Amino acid sequence: MLCIVSLAPHSCTLDRLMPRRELLEGEPNILSYHQGTDTWVYSSKSKTAANAADQHATWDGKYPLCRGLEQSPINIKTEEAVATPALDRALEPRLLTHVPLLVNTGVYFELDLTTPVHYARPTSADKVVADEASKGTSRIEGGTYNFYQVHWHTPSENTVDGVQYPLEAHYVHQLNDTSLVGTNNRLAVVAVLYEESEACNADLDAFWDALPMEPGSAAYAQPVDLQAMLAPLLPAGYFSWSGSLTTPPCTEGVVWNLMKRRSKVCPRQLERLKQSVAGMRGGVDINNRVVQPVNERTIRMTTTATANLVLSEESAATESHSGSRLLMLGGFGVLVALLAGAAWRLGPRAASASAGSRPYFECV
Ligand SMILES: [Zn+2]
After folding, report:
1. Distance from the CA of 354 to the center of ligand 1, in angstroms?
2. Bond before 235 cis per omega within 30 degrees
């Protein structure tokens, strides 16, 4: 289990980001795809709820990809999800623990793992990806994906059987192929829903209060064990489908993987994110895109039977220990992967080959 780290303000070095600039239409930049901009809004009318009309009005014209047929987020109808044995054990996150960079993008809280060099976002973000400093690699259906960052939306963007949750995490990956660096293509997201509970989430508390309240970044000296956060959720399986970025430019071809088991978050933790979002976005304290039509997409899911999808404290304690072991094994696995350059090169090719039968991987 992670220890709860009490953070004194002086433990962080708060740095203002480089001067912000407007993103150009469709500008490819993986690490800035959720970058804040006033040219699009979640809502201009309600301060507490996403507004579909406002989103259509401010997103669809400037960012035509947002009018696509395979957009995110979606509502998952569990009765219509197709149990797919091939998905069982096909998701293997292997996230490394480094000195993290805590970021308020102006849209949400984001955690970037650095090694341990500071970088200015977004102008030199590509360099961070290209410097071969791995933040971890996850195996997703036979492909090797590089982990980039995790960020949070409140309330959740994806819904399950019409139920919206108070918080959703997005662990953003990209297929391990150098030709993709700096683009929004071949992305994969591992998403986690949170249920509200009186007890606060100790894993989030390890760094949550250190996240800057204003756009900017803070270096953070404590290791954040993201692998341990995900590991307890893995045994319950997940849903998988093809979608898009949930912010402009809404690029499609994103492989979404939503964990069936949910984590927990307390009101205090939610409030901190809401206050930050409201401060940056004219008092609007939410940062979720409205649910998009599923259209002809198939929602697949693992065959894992789950009786209780809420992570209990007991199972969290038990499985986090498993997670720690997984992390150790994962670290060893990544080390082996680093040493086996051939394996790194084979990963993208294997995934590209399998993509031939999955047109939703095509770039748009
Ligand atoms: Zn997101």
Report:
1. 26
2. no
Cα(37) to centroid(ligand 1), Å? 15
Q: Within 10 A of 232 (CB to CB), how many other CB atoms are there?
A: 24
The residue among 43, 70, 66 whose CA lies nearest residue 249 is 66
Q: Count of CB atoms within 10 A of residue 258's CB? A: 25
Percent helix, percent strand, percent coil in the chain, to nearest 5: 30, 25, 45
Residue type, 176: N
Give residue 214's pLDDT. Answer: 84
Give the Å distance between the CA of 190 and the centre of ligand 1.
Answer: 10
Whole-number Å distance, alpha carbon 208 to ligand 1 midpoint, is 17
Reply yes or no on domain 10-16+23-361 having CATH 3.40.718.10. Answer: no
| Residues less than 5 Å from ion ligand 1, measured at CB | 170
Lowest mean pLDDT among 55-59, 161-165, 314-318: 314-318
- Alpha-carbon Rg for the chain in angstroms: 19
Q: How far, in Å, from the CA of 227 to the mean position of ligand 1?
A: 19
Q: What angle do CA 131, 134, 138 make, to 5 degrees?
A: 140
Q: What is the pTM of this model?
A: 0.74
Chain segment 50-103, per-residue pLDDT in tens: 999 999 888 988 899 999 999 999 999 999 999 999 999 899 999 887 767 788
CB neighbour burial string for 282-291, b if at least 16 within 10 angstroms, e if fewer: eebbbbbbbb
Categorize the per-residue pLDDT at 138 as very low, low, confident or very high, splitting at 50, 70 and 90: very high
- Rounded to whole angstroms, the Cα distance separating 271 from 307 reads 30
CA of 84 to the centre of ligand 1 (A): 25
DSSP string, 98-148: -EEEEEE-SSSEEEEEESS----TTTTHHHHHHTT---BEEEETTEEEEEE
Structure tokens at 162: 């019409």
Task: Report the b/e string of 161-180 with b at 16+ CB within 10 A.
Answer: eeebbbbbbbbbbbbbbeeb
Contact between 262 and 75 (Cβ < 8 Å)? no
- The helix/strand/coil state of 37 is coil
